[in-house]
């Protein structure tokens, strides 16, 4: 941890060592409850393109801790670099710059876990679609808020699914079964989390049963799609992190709205545990918003004893 003129610089290893999944879910829960109460804000992502790279900026604020800030990252074919900056809203001091690759991975898993804990708290048969870096925390988040009786993983590359199942089974002490096709993965699953960059739907309505909760977490570009329209159309409730952002980043939500659907924002259901037990089919769309990042970064500072 480096300290410059009152500002801290927190590196990836310090984030990893000072942030658990439970910490992250608690930070997400608190942030969205504050958002619901009107004491936090989060603006849509802004993308700036230059020379094959894109700069993404995601601003937010949280009055409870007097923080203003944003996640910003530059991405290209050569990879990406992520940081969160935090300012003190009372005096405009720059509090910290926090490296945010691990932080982003953790909050992506935490937000779907949080939404699931409200919309579908009793997970029995859980399926993960995708087996990459972000899939790891989709699993960890779900295990943290629930105790699935069975866990399956599907990837377009079956060897990747097998490797994921082997590694994560050892890491978390659970049995994970790799499957080689989407139908087998989704059949009898009551809870599904997808974290892919697919351009065509992987989650088809005919593969799902009469009851399901689906988390769509892999895409924040309009040319990608993880679930077909019928999955949302047949749902009793569709929830998105941020309505305005989903209208420019989510093919699923924008199409759902186009045909008359009325999604609600995650902040509208924040803290309302037990109110949705009568719903048979629910969908949550996650794209990532800046509020999640600044809240999680602040939790890291608290765990380090500097906030």
From TrEMBL:
- InterPro entries for the chain: NAD(P)-bd_dom_sf, ODC_Mu_crystall, ODC_N
Q: Name it.
A: Ornithine cyclodeaminase related protein
Signal sequence span is: none
Q: Name one GO cellular component term.
A: cytoplasm
- Family annotation (Gene3D superfamilies): NAD(P)-binding Rossmann-like Domain, ornithine cyclodeaminase, domain 1
For this protein, the record's PANTHER family field holds:
KETIMINE REDUCTASE MU-CRYSTALLIN
Superkingdom in the source lineage: Archaea
The family database entries (Pfam families) matched by this protein are listed as: OCD_Mu_crystall
């Amino acid at each position: 941890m480096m300290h410059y003129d009152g500002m801290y610089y927190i590196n990836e290893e310090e984030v990893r060592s000072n942030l658990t999944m439970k910490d992250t879910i608690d930070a997400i829960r608190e942030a969205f409850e504050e958002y619901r109460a009107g004491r936090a804000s989060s603006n849509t992502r802004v993308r700036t393109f230059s020379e094959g790279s894109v700069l993404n900026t995601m601003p937010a604020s949280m009055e409870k801790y007097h923080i203003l800030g944003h996640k910003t990252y530059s991405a290209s074919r050569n990879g990406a670099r992520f940081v969160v900056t935090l300012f003190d809203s009372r005096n405009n001091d720059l509090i910290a710059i926090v490296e945010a690759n691990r932080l982003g991975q953790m909050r992506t898993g935490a937000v779907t876990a949080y939404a699931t804990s409200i919309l579908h708290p009793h997970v029995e048969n859980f399926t993960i679609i995708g087996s990459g870096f972000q899939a790891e925390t989709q699993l960890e988040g779900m295990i943290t808020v629930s105790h699935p009786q069975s866990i399956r993983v599907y990837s377009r590359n079956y060897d990747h699914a097998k490797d994921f199942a082997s590694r994560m089974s050892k890491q978390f002490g659970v049995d994970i079964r790799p499957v080689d096709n989407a139908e087998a993965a989704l059949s009898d699953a009551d809870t599904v989390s997808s974290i892919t960059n697919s351009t065509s739907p992987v989650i088809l309505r005919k593969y799902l049963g009469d009851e399901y909760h689906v988390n769509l977490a892999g895409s924040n570009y309009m040319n990608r799609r993880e679930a077909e329209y019928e999955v949302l159309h047949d749902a009793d409730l569709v929830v998105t992190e941020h309505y305005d952002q989903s209208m420019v980043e989510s093919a699923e939500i924008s199409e759902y709205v186009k045909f008359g659907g009325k999604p609600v924002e995650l902040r509208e259901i924040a803290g309302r545990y037990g109110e949705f037990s009568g719903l048979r089919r629910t969908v949550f769309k996650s794209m990532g918003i800046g509020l999640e990042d600044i809240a999680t970064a602040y939790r890291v500072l608290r765990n380090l004893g500097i906030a």
